[in-house]
Specification:
The chain has 814 residues and is α+β, with helices and mostly antiparallel strands. It folds into 6 domains: 80 residues, no CATH class; 79 residues, Alpha-Beta Plaits (2-Layer Sandwich), CATH 3.30.70.100; 198 residues, no CATH class; 79 residues, Calcium-transporting ATPase, cytoplasmic transduction domain A (Distorted Sandwich), CATH 2.70.150.10; 130 residues, Rossmann fold (3-Layer(aba) Sandwich); 114 residues, Calcium-transporting ATPase, cytoplasmic domain N. It contains 25 helices and 29 strands. The chain has a 7-stranded mixed β-sheet, with helices on both faces. Strands 9-8-10-16-11-14 form a 6-stranded antiparallel β-sheet, with no helix packed on it. The protein is globular, with a radius of gyration of 33 Å. This is Cu2+-exporting ATPase. It is found in: Cell membrane. It comes from Pseudidiomarina maritima.
């Protein structure tokens, strides 16, 4: 059988999509027994699918003259659609029960109107659970039911609007930004050169008015100006036209509508004056207006890149190749994308762990700074979790893969960052609506201005109206919120603080009451068994210490409470349990088969839980907080020690100094909680609480204002969900299941003070941006309507107002 001859592609380009390869060379795909370079997992998987379907002739006959116009999937695959393939979807989707979620990269998105249009259109599809569009990062997060709607239908729905949607691959993000920068730089270059030339001619024309310029020379200079301004209008200003058309299509006119109208009107009127050799020309205003607008857009693009590059860098640090253990115990090199759950991989010293897994070696030291920002080495023991992105520090280790690609904790972190960027705080949403309404009012005021000046001075009516359109363009108002929010999230991410809900930026500064859990929050959560006190009674049901430790160990293996971690490795002896029940806030209930033909009901947990069986029981040791009992008697008391966080006292004092009341909510006994509260300076303590009790206390406090809750995110789920601002600490492995608004990755209590400082600064900058934008737009309006602002001065003023907003927001990046 003759093999299909595949065409060559230029060096440095992806064989499949013809886009530039990433700096590391990308990935490989074998077609017709030959290796070809591709830019990402998606292209690799699609190319493999094309080969499996015997459709390699797709590469023979496609037109490669315009890489952006070629189809990424052969026509024959359009019905099958490669993106609906289950194996392919594992590369870039996350499974969430019956649903899936995906991040799509959108080409052609320019503003919030684009985001609104995509969100409304896609959300109408059956089976769509959630659509969140982030105009800042040009991404869409979609959650859908695969049983109802296919991924190909979602991609097709976006394509119908004129946008190109592909699964987001962070490895390609740098190339995409380079293309976008090139897109703006070339247009900026054309506009800048034209502006300089047209301005020189404009100066000549201005002085010609004073010195009676020859009419023929003036006409010649007009024609030269027309010639220089035309490329600016047709090429450089193209992004504004596209954005304006899409915003009108969305029914939400954006700031590019008056911009487009002003540019086309000024150029049209000037061109008409040139043709009939009568009137005035403002070609320099067209060129200068376009140039300054592009400068603003270019700086906005750089701000976006700075904001999202941190998350992108996380993925780019992951290796492309892993060392997988074979059946004979040797290591083979395989692509990370080919790893499966259950594979055993070898990680050499200094190498990056490619996937989440369980440590099989006896010990390891890893650097998790890529995840938490904390550079110190974290010591791991056998069976501990090691995370993708961690760097192995000491000796070679063996790891059993438990999560790959989009299921890893690293992917969860990136998804949380994307979600935070897509969720605008209330003030940002208000500013966005104001900008949209402002555009409509500008158009109405411009029409009114034209009518008034037609009566006052018909010759100036058009140019005064043009100045109004240009000067009052709400660019600064549209940029005010997104730039500040993006900057704040970037700053928080650098500090190891993950924000899931951007509304926190607005709410937190108003919080005057903070509730804190004790265990794992005010304490380090590094528990150790301090005392194991056995209740000995001379009866038929007495057990040895090793047997009781085996029982405790078996029970605590079914608990998620932080204390349980210290009670899971007490002895090598094993206990057999059946009918296990985990009662949140109380403990674990089970049946213990202590001999082959004998069993007894047992439970382990809090004092209140044990007293349900033994109401008259009083602890023998005051410091004990864990109790073990059968339905007949109490077997043992356990004291599990934990130390206070070193930075907790200073942070609590700082909050109290700032006028914030700190209240402890804990399920521990009052005598234990009061010791901790006294040491930390907490004046109000509510102890011995169940989750429902905590919820009641917090709800009551919410009647008097916004409150925050700081907990470990496990037993405090209901109260964290109820709080206006919920904050959790903990290892990154807990991120996938946390429900908090904020996750402090560094596990330091002092991060709260840093979080509050950044949030206050972000809100101040957000308010300053909106205030400045409103002052400028409202202030310039009467001046422009009165005819005191020429079009080119209006262009400079509008551009400067936008740059002021951008520069103010960039203070958050310092």
């Amino acid at each position: 059988m003759t093999q299909t001859k595949l065409p060559d592609v230029p060096d440095g380009q992806c064989f499949h999509c013809l886009q530039p390869l990433p700096a590391d060379g990308g990935y490989r795909v074998v077609l017709n027994n030959q290796q070809h370079q591709v830019c990402c997992y998606g292209c690799q998987a699609v190319a493999e699918t094309i080969a499996q379907q015997n459709l390699l002739h797709f590469y023979q006959y496609r037109d490669t003259s315009n890489p952006l116009q070629i189809p990424l999937i052969p026509e024959e695959l359009q019905q099958l659609t490669a993106y609906d393939d289950e194996q392919l979807q594992q590369q870039f989707t996350r499974v969430d029960g019956d649903a899936r979620s995906i991040n799509l990269s959108i080409e052609g998105m320019t503003c919030s109107a684009c985001a609104w249009l995509i969100e409304q259109h896609v959300s109408r599809l059956p089976g769509i659970l959630q659509v969140q569009v982030n105009a800042t990062t040009e991404r869409v997060n979609v959650r859908w039911l695969p049983s109802t709607v296919k991924l190909s239908a979602i991609l097709q729905a976006i394509a119908e609007l004129g946008y190109r949607a592909l699964p987001f691959q962070a490895a390609n993000q740098e190339q995409e930004f380079k293309q976008r920068r090139r897109y703006f730089v070339t247009r900026l270059g054309v506009a800048g050169l034209a502006t300089m030339q047209v301005m020189m001619l404009a100066v000549g024309l201005y002085f010609g008015v004073v010195s009676d310029l020859d009419p023929q020379l003036r006409q010649f200079m007009w024609w030269i100006s027309l010639f220089m301004a035309t490329p600016v209008l047709l090429y450089s200003a193209q992004p504004f036209y596209i954005s304006a058309i899409r915003s009108i299509q969305a029914g939400q006119p954006n700031m590019d509508v008056p911009v487009t109208f002003a540019l086309l009107s000024a150029y049209g009127a000037s061109a008409y004056a040139t043709f009939i050799n009568e009137g005035e020309v403002y070609f320099e205003s067209v060129a200068m207006f376009t140039f300054f607008l592009l400068v603003g857009r270019y700086f906005e693009l750089l701000a976006r890149q700075k904001a999202v590059s941190a998350a992108s860098n996380l993925v780019k640090l992951l290796p492309a190749i892993a060392q997988r253990e074979t059946a004979v115990g040797e290591a083979e090199s395989v692509a990370v994308s080919h790893l499966q759950v259950g594979d055993v991989i070898h990680v050499m010293p200094g190498a990056t762990v490619p996937a989440d897994g369980e440590l099989l070696s006896s010990s390891a030291g890893v650097n998790e700074s890529i995840l938490t920002g904390e550079s110190r080495v974290v010591n791991k023991r056998q069976s501990d979790t090691v995370l993708a992105g961690s760097i192995n520090q000491n000796q070679a280790i063996r790891v059993k893969v438990t999560a790959i690609q989009q299921e890893t904790v690293l992917a969860s972190i990136i998804e949380l960052q994307d979600l935070a960027l897509s969720r605008k705080p209330k003030l940002a949403r208000v500013a966005e609506r104001m900008a949209s309404k402002f555009v409509v009012r500008i158009l109405m005021l411009a029409a009114t201005t034209f009518l008034i000046w037609t009566v006052i001075d018909p010759a100036e009516a058009f140019w005064v109206t043009l100045s109004v359109l240009v000067a009052t363009c709400p660019c600064a108002l549209a940029l005010a919120a997104p730039t500040a929010v993006t900057g704040a999230i970037h700053k928080l991410n650098k500090a190891g603080i993950l924000l899931r809900n951007a509304d926190v930026l607005q709410i937190l500064p108003d919080v005057k009451t903070v509730f804190v859990d004790k265990t794992g929050t005010l304490t380090t959560g590094e528990f150790k068994l301090q005392e194991f006190y056995i209740h000995q009674k001379p009866d038929s049901l007495s057990f040895s210490e090793s047997k009781l430790k085996a029982l405790v160990q078996a029970l605590e293996n079914h608990s998620e409470h932080p204390i349980a971690t210290a009670l899971r490795h007490l002895t090598s002896e094993r206990a057999t349990l059946t009918d296990i029940t985990n009662e949140t806030g109380f403990g674990i209930d089970a049946t213990w088969e202590y001999e082959s033909d004998k069993s007894v009901p047992v439970r382990i947990g809090s004092l209140r839980y044990i007293q349900q069986w033994h109401p008259d029981f009083k602890p023998s040791l005051n410091q004990c907080q864990v109790f073990l009992a059968t339905d007949d008697k109490v077997l043992a008391e356990l004291h599990v020690g934990d130390k206070l966080r070193e930075d907790a006292k200073a942070t609590i004092l700082a909050m109290q100094t700032a006028g914030i009341e700190v209240i402890m909510l804990t399920g521990d006994r009052l005598e234990l909680a009061e010791v901790v509260a006294s040491e930390l300076g907490i004046k109000q303590v509510f102890a011995d609480l169940l989750p429902a009790d905590k919820l009641e206390k917090l709800s009551a406090a919410q009647q008097h204002g916004a409150v925050a809750m700081i907990g470990d995110g496990l037993n405090d789920g209901p109260v964290l969900a109820q709080a206006d601002v919920s904050i959790t600490f903990g290892h990154a492995a807990d991120l996938a299941r946390t429900a908090a608004d904020v996750v402090l990755l560094r596990n330091q209590f002092s991060a709260l003070d840093q979080f509050r400082t950044i949030t206050l600064k972000a809100r101040n900058i957000l308010r300053q941006n909106i205030l400045w934008a409103l002052i400028y737009n409202i202030g310039i309006l009467p001046v422009a309507m009165a005819g005191f602002v020429t079009p080119y001065i209006a262009a400079i003023g509008m551009s400067l107002s936008s740059l002021i907003v951008l520069v103010n927001s960039l203070r958050l990046y310092r």
